[in-house]
Design goal:
With about 400 residues, this protein is of the alpha+beta class. It contains 12 helices and 10 strands. The chain folds into 3 domains: about 120 residues, Butyryl-Coa Dehydrogenase, subunit A, domain 1 (Orthogonal Bundle); about 110 residues, Butyryl-CoA Dehydrogenase, subunit A, domain 2 (Beta Barrel); about 140 residues, Butyryl-CoA Dehydrogenase, subunit A, domain 3, CATH 1.20.140.10. The strands form 3 sheets. A 4-stranded mixed beta sheet has the order 1-4-5-8. Strands 2-3-7-6 form a 4-stranded antiparallel beta sheet, covered by helices on one side. A two-stranded antiparallel ribbon has the order 9-10. Helix 8 runs antiparallel to helix 9.
């Protein structure tokens, strides 16, 4: 996909924001286990960056999804994964279904303030027994007059401690697992909603993550997104943007692993010569950068198709799978070249090693991506490739 001057201008805006307002504060935020999310979101809202591909009717910019991907790829240059993740939850995980399928009233009440940075959103799908297996969620929403009564719990919810609303997948019936679910917007201050203690995580430490519990929570049926029973399908559609967003966030981060390692091994001497002079080292770095460029090409191929109105489930799954694989191998290889310094908490490669590991898990594990790809290729046992 060829980027326009408008894309490049957006890149510069986001690059300046990351360099001036995020990176200088990362060490402090990582130690604190949180960042000033409302302050950062308000600033992003002022710049129009929280609703790039959303309708101007609800404070968005009305641009196509490629501009949002430019934003996310550049955001991935932050010196941590947690802050970009929290922002992507706002732009690409908790709001796509709201923007595309909700009523005008719901959009006005929740989408518009989220785009302006006045509200913090979270996506509440995963549960202790239902992570990548979305169909297995147990949280229920039982009709009661014009309301639903919601009971259940969600796990690993990014932004939960500071969220104003949860885009929540629930069971609204007893039918088949793929047809009995609905998406509800549940305001965080609704009686019966409780956010648990923040989780102490391996990485992504500057983003706040916690379980969420629903105990006889009464929610108006008007807070449902789309038709009752359509929630699984809507969440799958939402996953296309989420998985592309997650992939975009990795590209610059992986590139930073390579470039920072080049700088380090050029200065680091072993056996009276720069470590970079070792063919094993510079060949490995060239290989890693090649892999990053392959990921970038695949991701942007998927984006171009998505902007063109195509179903990109296969391409998005492939890009997510590749991002997950590289997010394990590249930081690991780079850390090895840093030696003992790579094992020190304050180094950027140490943080990348921890933060990047989530890519192969969140938004659908590698194994789930492989299952989707195999299914759409028609190579699962007993399955045939769908006809055109």
């Amino acid at each position: 996909m060829i980027l326009t001057d408008e894309h490049r201008e957006l890149q510069r805006t986001v690059r300046n924001f990351v360099q001036q307002e995020i990176n200088p504060n990362v060490p402090e935020w990582e130690k604190a286990g949180a960042f000033p999310i409302r302050e950062i979101f308000a600033r992003l809202g002022q710049l129009g960056l929280l609703g790039i591909s959303k309708s101007p009717s609800y404070s968005g910019l009305g641009l196509d999804f490629s501009y949002e991907m430019v934003f996310l790829e550049e955001l991935g240059a932050a010196h941590c994964g947690g802050v970009p993740l929290s922002i992507a939850v706002q732009t690409s995980m908790s709001t796509p279904a709201l923007a595309n399928f909700a009523s005008d009233a719901l959009r006005e009440q929740f989408l518009a303030p989220a785009i302006r940075g006045e509200m913090v959103g979270a996506i509440a799908v995963s549960e202790p027994g239902a992570g990548s297996d979305v169909a297995a969620v147990k949280t229920t929403a039982v009709p009661d007059g014009g309301d639903y009564i919601v009971n259940g719990s969600k796990m690993w919810i990014t932004n939960a401690p500071c969220a104003d609303f949860f885009c929540t997948l629930v069971n609204t019936g007893d039918g088949k697992a793929h047809k009995n679910k609905s998406l509800l917007i549940i305001p965080a201050k609704t009686p019966g909603v409780r956010v648990g203690e923040k989780l102490d995580k391996l990485g992504m430490r500057s983003s706040e993550t916690a379980p969420v519990f629903f105990d006889n929570v009464r929610v108006p049926q008007s807070h449902r997104i789309g038709d009752e029973g359509a929630g699984f399908l809507l969440q799958m559609l939402q996953f296309q943007e989420e998985r592309l967003a997650g992939t975009a966030l990795t590209i610059k981060g992986l590139e930073n692993c390579v470039t920072s390692t080049i700088d380090y091994v050029r200065d680091r001497h072993a056996f009276d010569a720069p470590l970079l002079n070792n063919q094993t080292v510079h060949f490995a770095l060239a290989e890693m950068q090649t892999e990053v460029e392959c990921l970038r090409a695949l991701t942007w191929q998927a984006v171009e198709a998505y902007v063109g109105g195509e179903d990109v489930t296969t391409l998005a799954s492939m890009a997510k799978l590749k991002a997950g694989r590289l997010s394990r191998t590249i930081p690991d290889q780079c850390l090895q070249f840093w030696g003992g310094m790579g094992y020190i908490e304050e180094t950027a490669i140490n943080r990348a090693y921890r933060d990047c590991r989530l890519t192969a898990i969140g938004g659908g594990a590698d194994e789930v991506m492989l299952g989707i790809i195999c299914k759409l290729m028609g190579i699962l046992p007993g399955k045939r490739k769908p006809s055109a």
